[in-house]
Amino acid sequence: MQNPLTTGINTTNAPDANGRFGEFGGSYIPPELQTVMDEVTDAYRQIVQDPAFLTELSDLLHHYVGRPSPVYYAKRLSEAVGGAQIYLKREDLNHTGAHKINHCIGEVLLAKRMGKKKVIAETGAGQHGVALATAAALLGLECDIYMGAVDIKKEAPNVSRMKILGATVVSVERGTKTLKDAVDAAFEAYLEDPVDQIYCIGSVVGPHPFPMMVRDFQAVVGIEARKQIQEMTDALPDAVVACVGGGSNAMGIFSAFLDDKEVKLYGVEPAGKGLDTPLHAATITKGKPGILHGFKSLLLQDESGEALPVYSIASGLDYPGVGPQHSFLHTIGRVIYESATDREAVEAFYGLSRMEGIIPALESSHAVAHAIKLAQSMDKEQVILVNLSGRGDKDIDYVLEHYPLVDYEVNGSNGNGFKEFLAHIKEK
Q1: Are residues 251 and 168 part of one domain?
Q2: Range of 159's domain?
Q3: Which candidate in 69, 91, 100, 155 is catalytic?
Q4: Catalytic residue among 89, 269, 389, 394
Q5: 32-89 tens-digit pLDDT
Q6: Catalytic residue among 91, 107, 122, 224, which?
């Protein structure tokens, strides 16, 4: 049965009846929760064939979220970098400031159709939390957001937004006090009452059907971008680049280009302080198959199979696992997974701000950083499309405190210092 949300999109072995993408995915959860998850799967398959649901979703995405988000040619950045021309899919311009609202609207509509009273979720950078709190307020449901204590301090503006929107923000004090621990806490809360509430997972992770469902709601990004870039350039892009933590923004944009073998797809993981240190979250680059949070995927783990503590400057990327479809696409070689360090991400953060007047989220800055390096190896007639998954309002205080502007303004103002950023990247 064709899902109208993804009509015309190749979702590549996506997924089989058991929720598997090759060897990855599936559902590894207690039997009592599996019964509830099967109900979610059945409800999802029904609503995506319901014209009333599809009309309501489309209307909200257009009139409330602000879709379609534009594709923008980053002319000054492209000229400064040299080589390929860089275009940005502006998901940062969505209501709430990121791509997360796309699937949150869909998940909360689903919850309401199922008669749920409350939605719960984890959040790292806070963008998923804000988006879910927004959708819950819009549609009249209660909302609990679980967030690591470290991220609560780091992403204070988003915490305030969630509270203003009426959500209860639950501080997670255990473990590393970051995203993985927030997911653990949210799953435990879900197990306590899977009847009246639903866990609205914030990425293409978790047990089936969530990797499929979140991807489908995010496919609108790729559907729009594929049409827009062809209208602007009369061709498909030569490369599409997106950051990857759990991987929802990347799957959203990649899904439209999987059949276009001439289009290279790049997922950019957080290299943190360096891949030769334990302070990174490059799951696909350094991980091996394992089970976490109810699904099988590549996982950063110790010898006993326990998830390792991970790190990234970007709270939305510091997760030890990754969406199972990403692991599958890596295995078959359709997507190339690279990484960017904290330093490279901050350089891209400041560089895009100075060259284009666009302050990107630190998560998105990883994709911009790789696009900068990639462009220099390509011809000027070629095109790179970057999914700018979120805006950096949430990150500005943290960046200014820990990565002062004075360290980056090598040659003064008006963007001149960006030449030094490029020189630094070339040295690496």
Answers
A1: no
A2: 21-64+100-211
A3: 100
A4: 389
A5: 889 999 999 999 999 999 999 999 999 999 999 999 999 999 999 999 899 999 999 9
A6: 122
- Is 301 in a helix, a strand, or coil? strand
State the pTM of this model.
0.93
CA atoms within 13 A on the CB side of 423: 8
Task: Say if residue 205 is in the same domain as residue 236.
Answer: no
Rounded CA-CA distance 393/342 in Å is 18
Which residues neighbour 125 within 8 Å (Cβ) at sequence distance 6 or greater? 151, 155, 158, 314, 315, 316, 361, 362, 363, 390, 394
Reply yes or no on whether 389 is catalytic.
yes
Separation between Cα atoms, residue 387 and residue 96, nearest integer Å: 16
Domains in the chain, number:
2
**Pair 293, 235 in one domain:** yes
Q: SS3 of 96, please?
A: coil
CATH number where 132 lies: 3.40.50.1100
327 classed as catalytic: no
Does residue 111 contact residue 196 with C-beta atoms inside 8 Å?
A: no
What is the per-residue pLDDT across 225-269, written as a single tens digit (0 to 9) for each?
999 999 999 999 999 999 999 999 999 999 999 999 999 999 999
Residue 115: partners with Cβ closer than 8 Å, 6 or more residues away: none
Query: Can 344 be counted among the known catalytic residues?
Result: no
